[in-house]
Design brief:
Elements lengths: L2 H7 L3 H25 L5 H12 L7 H13 L4 H28 L7 H20 L8 H15 L16 H5 L1 H12 L4 E5 L8 E6 L4 E6 L5 E5 L14 E3 L4 E2 L6 E2 L18 E5 L2 E5 L43 E2 L4 E5 L3 H15 L6 E3 L2 E6 L7 H9 L8 E6 L3 E6 L2 E11 L2 E10 L7 H11 L5 H15 L14 H12 L1
Antiparallel strand pairs: 1-9, 2-3, 2-5, 3-4, 6-7, 8-9, 10-17, 11-17, 12-13, 13-14, 14-15, 15-16, 16-17
Length: about 500
């Protein structure tokens, strides 16, 4: 600019320098403070954005950083500089302090000091700016600078900040141990998901019941006096403790809350007709004898315009309870399926997704052909686990009187269920979320064999041939969880595009 133009706009050189500093401060606020402040509700995302913008070449170019330091150097002798620089620094420090404080609350780490951690992050960023001031743009490694900032944050919040280059859907620590993510999964994946809870053969007579904890819902299934199957929330309306603690049995009379003295009929209605409310009703349907439950869409006992959702086999009369094609294996389920023993359960100190990916990786190795069916968000395939030639295979074929290696049919029901149909029966496997980094693995086995035909021996052999729920699988899942969360490993490289694991990750990513 010519000296004449400068004199036209500014009364003095000092006024021009003040205006230049005001421009830098306004740019810093508009380009960094404002967008980061909009993300305050999600402090991890806000801090990641803050680091990215603070080190961005438009804000932290060598020229601009040098100008900032020049003004800071004169701030003690010029009140205008001191005020503008001080307001910028105070606003930035307050924002960092607030984000760190929110993150401490989210991670329930009250022992941490927000002021100290915020001061440390600001110090890291300032040291990086000092390096920029003495370099040219070509010699600055901004990716390395971001990694250093993230390493500082990860050292304090290891489950929230993945290493630079980690996958966005996170097979790093945050994806497997974040309580906030677990809450979002409950809301987006599980609250409206149909879950297998039992088989009709378990509830033959009026008053027969069974209970199950799905991680996101506690359920009572009961056959009422009219012979209708009901799905009810297993929680007292007066105070939400578990109402029925027995796993299965037959009610002699009403469902009674021993703590409060309330009683409820088998259809869930409060026997006294007054407060507290009726038991919360759950949607229940039956498909090929398997009983599926999901949380009712509202908190009322009945849905307007919808026959009682506890009644089974209602199909999709009004769209609230769509039909379940989960047992469409390309062949009908065999008649006469009955439960073989109590469902097997074990607690796994790992995120439910670790278990699911482990199951699907195993299924990928056993798959006999490409995916054979995909409908309504379900995926199915054939497997040939009887190709090993070992003792378990020979014994299984002999007991089943099989002359050919009959393919097993499998279907995965997102987000967390695997159904395995074999010549001897059906197994339902589930990874039920109990919290961040904790789940319950449940396996329910149904058989077409009688005890005289060696039903339990055949089941044992089937489990050896496809060990989805063996203790060794739990050990692997817990080892993966520990490696990702405690040691900072990535859980796995990207799966092959045609693999079942890749399909699950894409399904999860689309919904989360």
């Amino acid at each position: 600019m010519s000296p004449g133009i400068v004199r036209f706009y500014f009364d003095s050189k000092a006024a021009m320098l003040v205006a230049s500093l005001q421009f830098l401060a306004a740019e810093f606020e508009e380009r960094l403070l404002v967008p980061v402040a909009k993300l305050k509700a999600t402090p991890v995302a806000a801090l990641e954005r803050l680091v990215e913008l603070y080190l961005d070449p438009d804000i932290a170019s060598p020229r601009k950083v040098s100008v900032w330091y020049a003004y800071w150097g004169e701030a003690n002798s010029r009140q205008e500089y001191y005020d503008i620089c001080g307001q910028k620094d105070e606003g930035f420090a307050a924002l960092v302090r607030e984000l760190i404080g929110r993150l401490i609350i989210d991670t329930a780490q009250s022992q941490l000091d927000a002021d100290g951690i915020a001061l440390g992050l600001i110090g890291v960023l300032e040291m990086l700016w000092q390096e920029f001031a003495f370099r040219t743009e070509e010699t600055i490694d901004r990716a390395a600078a971001r990694r250093r900032c993230r390493a500082y944050l990860r050292s304090i919040f290891p489950t929230r900040f993945a290493a630079e280059g980690g996958t966005g859907t996170g097979r790093g620590a945050r994806a497997y141990a974040d309580p906030r993510l677990h809450g979002r999964e409950r809301e987006l994946l599980f609250q409206n998901a149909w879950t297998v809870v039992g088989h009709e053969s378990q509830l033959v007579h009026a008053g027969d019941f069974l209970t199950i904890d799905l991680g996101v819902e506690r359920v009572i299934l009961v056959r009422d006096a009219a012979g209708t199957l009901r799905g009810l929330r297993n929680a007292c309306p007066a105070f939400p403790h578990t109402l029925v603690t027995r796993r299965a049995g037959r009610f002699d009379g009403d469902i009674v809350c021993e703590l409060h003295g309330h009683s409820f009929s088998w259809d869930g209605r409060h026997a006294g007709g007054a407060r507290p409310a009726n038991l919360h009703s759950l949607e229940l349907i039956s498909a090929a004898g398997l009983l599926y439950v999901r949380a009712a869409r509202d908190a009322g006992f009945e849905h307007p315009g919808f026959e009682h959702p506890g009644s089974h086999n209602r199909g999709s009369e009004n769209g609230l309870a769509p039909a379940i094609p989960a047992t469409s294996f390309g062949t009908e389920l065999p008649a006469g399926l009955t439960l073989l023993g109590e469902p097997f359960e074990m607690i796994v100190a790992a995120d439910w997704k670790v278990v699911i990916e482990q199951w699907l990786a195993m299924a990928d190795r056993q798959r006999a052909e490409p995916v054979v069916a995909e409908e309504a968000g379900l995926i199915g395939w054939h497997a040939l686990p009887l190709h090993r030639g070992g003792w378990s295979e020979r014994r299984y074929l002999k007991l089943m009187r099989c002359t050919v290696q009959y393919p097993w049919h499998l279907k995965f029901i997102p987000p967390n269920q695997l159904l395995e149909l074999r010549p001897d029966g059906l197994s339902v496997l589930q990874a039920l979320p109990l919290g961040a980094a904790r789940c319950r693995v449940r396996r329910m086995d149904l058989t077409v064999l009688s005890p005289d035909d060696g039903a339990r021996v055949v089941r044992f052999l089937a489990h050896r041939l496809a060990p989805y729920a063996r203790h060794s699988m739990r050990d692997v899942a817990e080892s993966v969880q520990s490696g990702v969360v405690e040691l900072g490993y990535e859980a796995a490289a990207d799966a092959a595009p045609a693999s079942l694991v890749s399909w699950f990750r894409a399904w999860y990513g689309q919904r989360m």
